[in-house]
Amino acid sequence: MPNIASLLKAEILRLARKEIRNELESLKKALSHSRSEIAQLKRRTDQLEKLQARVSKQVLGRPAPPENDESTSRIRFSAKRFAAQRKKLGLSAADMGLLLGVSGQSIYHWEAEKSRPRQAQLAAIAALRKIGKREARSRLEQLGNQDASK
Description:
Order of helices and strands: HHHHHH
Helix content: over 70%
Number of strands: 0
Strand content: under 5%
Largest sheet: none
Shape: rod-shaped
Distance between the termini: 115 Å
C-alpha cells in the first residue's frame, strides 16, 4: 500500500505542473503578441525613415530662396578658380591668407576642397577677384606696415 505522504507529494506535483502549464500558456501568448507588435513597429519605423529621407532629399534639392539684400547674395566658390586667381596674383598661400584674414593652411584646405570658406570669407574672396597684382602687393605692404607698427 502506498504511503500517504508519497501520494500527497505526487498529487501536489501534478497540480503544480498543471498550474505552471496554464501560466506558461498565457505568457507564451503574450510573448507572441509582443513580438508581432515589435515587428509591426519596426516595419513602420522603416517606412517613416524612408519617407523622411525622401522628403529631406526634396527639401535639400531645392534652391535657397533669394534674399532681398544684395550684399548677402550667394557667392559661388570654385576651388580650382580660387587657386588660379591666387597664382594669377602671384601670391603665396600665406600672403593670400593675410589679405583675406585667414591662415595659409585655410587657403590650402580650400584649394584642396577639404573645406569651404564661410560667407564672410566668400565676400572677401569676391572683393579680391576685382584687383590686380599691383593692388594686391600694395595691400600686402599696407598690412605688413600695420603689423610692424604694432
